[in-house]
Amino acid sequence: MKQVKHLILSLLMSVTFVGCGTGLKKVSENEKPNILFIAIDDMNDWTGFLGGHPQTITPNMDKLAERGVSFINAHCSAPGCSPSRNALLYGVEPFKSGLYPFYGDEIHVQLMDRYTTLPRLLNEDGYNTYTAGKIHHGLRGDSREWVDFLPKEEAKGKKEFKEGYGYQVGNDSKLSFRPTFNADEDHTDYKVASYGVDVINKKHDKPFFLAVGIVKPHLPFDCPVRFFDALPEHIEAPAILEGDIKDIPVEGNSFRKVRDDRQFKKDKAWEDVRRAYLACISWADFNIGRVLDALEESPYADNTIVVLWSDHGYHLGEKMSFRKFTLWEEATKVPFIIYDGREKEQYKDRKYTKAVSLINVYRTIADFAGLEVPEYVDGESLVTVLNNTQKELTKPTITSWGKGNFSVRTEDWRYIRYFDGTEELYNHKSDDNEWHNLADKPEYKAKKEELAKSLPQNEAPTIKEFVNIWSVQGEDKASLKGKSE
Ligand SMILES: [Ca+2]
Ligand SMILES: [Ca+2]
Fold it and tell me: Does position 485 have pLDDT exceeding 90, yes or no?
């Protein structure tokens, strides 16, 4: 099929026509934009432009948001690295692929046979594709996707700590919230961003797709000490309602990482944890800024599109929970920005306030590149809403966590239905923190029914090969957790 497409392309003398709802826009081969694709690991809405925390320091992302279109109500397909990234990169919703939980790296052998990833689509259709850091969960440097990549060994960081600085749970190297005292250059994200800067500084004879996978603020929350020092002395806690979890069904409650919350409370360490998270967000922002500055100073500044996203959000004590893995706002909401260097004036400081899913990234980038996408790819191109931020998307914003467990987010509502039929309903107009579950109130029956119509009608069975049992939720939890890992 690819060969046929290439033949047609050459017959058209290097002019293709773009579909995907933008009308017949011509994108000639030599005008194809470059794409800078910035993936962030575990960053919630504690950024300046999303306003999730009043003390956060993220000047580079805020500047990008000001210069482009920020999606201030954007959500992941699943609240965990593996299912979120699989959905975005293979272009398939978890309820269509069956990839609800986490998988071992071996899963990618079959997925690469079954689907065409976004970088592979671009690589096969005229783009030079480069990557560093974490893009997939568990797949790196596949030559079908990338013409060049930073080997994992070269991205490996080195960290030096000092006794008495920061907080750590026992000797747990993951539950570590400490500043580092060695050079920036030693850290993974610095190396990842430097690779991105080097690629931008190359002379390109073909359009490029550069995927930069920033790994902070993922645990452990450690980064250079000056990002800790830049924060105020007292770190504000997010709004937390005493007894918030009382109106949450059993399945929802089972998602929460209560042990961490208990530990941090016992150690009086929540403030340290949040400080370290904010420091790592600033560190991520600093490295993102290095890549964005290199782009601005390069000959590609006027013909490059930047797509920045995080794979899911994060709880820092809200609903007595830590980490991700829930269907609530803290875990589903993500930073998501599109900046088009060709449309500096037109898209400036635009905000899209309606709910939007990261599943749309695949079709959006393909649309920018003038590429046809495989038929199975979910989502829709966002190019139309960049031009008109009042426009409604045609597809709902769904987050899945385990077969049968779904949330749908609209501009004003979140509705959650678990596999056992239990529900939650939140009105974001009056309850942005999702404190008051309205699902049992008779006056909201019609609203629930309306929202439930958006939930998937047919759910793919969970793929069981290579599954990480710990992450299975929903309908299959009881049967799969009986199986040895
Ligand atoms: Ca993640
Ligand atoms: Ca509540």
Answer: no
